[in-house]
Design brief:
The protein has helices at residues 16-19, 21-26, 30-39, 60-64, 82-94, 108-114, 209-222, and strands at residues 6-12, 44-50, 68-72, 97-101, 121-133, 147-157, 167-174, 179-188, 191-196. With 257 residues, it is α/β, with parallel strands linked by helices. The chain has a domain at 6-115 and 183-228: Class I glutamine amidotransferase (GATase) domain (Rossmann fold). A nine-stranded mixed beta sheet has the order 2-1-3-4-9-8-7-5-6, with helices on both faces. The N and C termini lie far apart (52 Å).
């Protein structure tokens, strides 16, 4: 059993915190800083990175030393350089876990890993959200009540353009009547992915203990068992002897040398 700390990188575009006084007041250390403090544990070795750092703070060395990457983005999806997205995607294929939070559903990395547009319906009026645990046996649901509520959140509504192999763990109901698949997992290559809906920048969702519990559980679940290069393609030596054959199939294009 691996008892070493889980190496976590919390990535945040860190744009609203610089431009919106309400966000500055609610998250004075940035969304990434608040998450780092709330998730702090001897079990986790936490590093943070932001958009404006060189290579968005996601150098190959940083990613090579990351077991699980958290991603929060909203206003600057288009400013994330494609080569960095490809670097993160390859690392997920190799085994790194990734957790996409809230508006990261429209990030380049979310859409690349899903193979979908990530689009949905939304409404920002600060309505109540009730999250239901629909798979209580899943490790991400460990220790959660049957449902919990956030008094103020941005509404996300169906249809949600996500991959067909998504396994839904949490479902949301909103005060205005909508429902939403608010927590789901995917396997991508050797890496695990979890999307979790709460976390609008002007509401205090990242101070809610159940929200933090979900994220902490997801980090443990997404921790890689091992990193392996993926995809690895090669021409293998045959394990058994292959008997010689005479091919005379004409237009089949098979030529015996």
């Amino acid at each position: 059993m691996n008892t070493s700390p889980i190496k976590v990188t919390i990535w945040n575009e860190n744009v609203h915190e610089k431009t919106n006084p309400a966000v500055q007041k609610l998250y004075p250390d940035g969304l990434h800083g608040t998450l780092a403090k709330k998730l702090a544990s001897p079990e986790l070795a936490i590093h943070t990175a932001t958009l404006d750092e060189p290579e968005h703070g996601l150098t190959q060395d940083v990613l090579n030393n990351t077991d699980v990457l958290l991603w929060w983005g909203h206003a600057a999806h288009d400013r994330v350089v494609d080569s960095i997205v490809a670097r993160v995607q390859q690392r997920v294929w190799d085994g790194m876990g990734i957790i996409a939070l809230h508006s990261a559903h429209m990030s380049k990395i979310f859409r690349a890993l899903n193979g979908t547009s990530g689009k949905l319906h939304w409404r920002e009026v600060g309505e109540k959200e009730r999250l239901w645990v629909i798979d209580p046996s899943h490790p991400i649901a460990a220790g959660l009540p049957e449902h919990f509520e956030l008094p103020y959140e941005e509404m996300y509504g169906e249809p949600f353009m996500i991959a067909g192999d998504a396994k839904v763990i949490l479902m949301s109901w909103f005060e205005g009547g909508e429902i939403f698949r608010s927590g789901f997992t995917l396997q991508r290559g050797n890496g695990k992915m979890f999307y979790f809906r709460p976390g609008h920048e002007t509401f205090p969702s990242f101070y809610d203990p159940n929200v933090i519990k979900v994220i902490a559980n997801a980090i443990r679940w997404a921790r890689p068992a091992a990193f392996m290069p993926y995809p690895k393609t090669h021409v293998p030596e045959a394990l058994e002897n292959i008997s010689p054959k005479d091919f005379d199939f004409g237009k089949a294009g098979i030529v015996r040398e």
